[in-house]
Fold this sequence. Notes:
Layout: H1 31-46, H2 56-63, H3 67-74, H4 77-84, H5 88-94, H6 102-117, H7 133-151, H8 159-179, H9 183-186, H10 190-205
Helix pairs in contact: 1-2, 1-4, 6-8, 6-10, 7-8, 8-10
Amino acid sequence: MITPHSGPTASPAAPGSGGRPDAAPAPRRDAEASKAAILRAARYLLARHAHADITLKAVADRAGVSAPLILKYFGNKDALFARVMSFESDADALLDAPLGELGRHMVRHVLEGQTQRGADPVLRIVFAPLQGEQGETLRANFRAQVSERLAGRLTGPDAGLRAELAVSTLLGLGVMYGIARGSHLRATSVDAIVDRYAPAVQAQLAP
């Protein structure tokens, strides 16, 4: 019996392979990496522009993603910037050291944020005056999530005052190093600055 098709039988293509049986699935960008890129882009823009002037397209362009992807991950612009204006995870890293070593850790953390990542997220508080109503959200979050959290770790009198003085000392260094870009500071090694500056921060943490 002669069959209607006498040529070689092709193997069925794998679903989604576009007709190529050996095609590998297209690589998919890691969702967490995309979210992190979006948050970094939004933080960068928030440090340089008023919240009202920042568009989702601008965030997407800087992050290298599409604006619809931002909506998928964060819902809307307000939800995205609510995350950006939180200092919770930044404080986790900033305060991640025993109290007796915390001054050195905090100073190193801020400096390495500048040298290795180009910015330290805690310094966003410096730009609160640019942000109108959102600036008060930044201030409230910073007080609760950074300075008051630090105060909760301190013993002895005036814990709140000492925490705010320690954070003030730290922010002054961050501004001079990362924003004013002091030439002498930038020419000095991180280790040398930590050795010289950390005792001033630690002095406020001690009872």
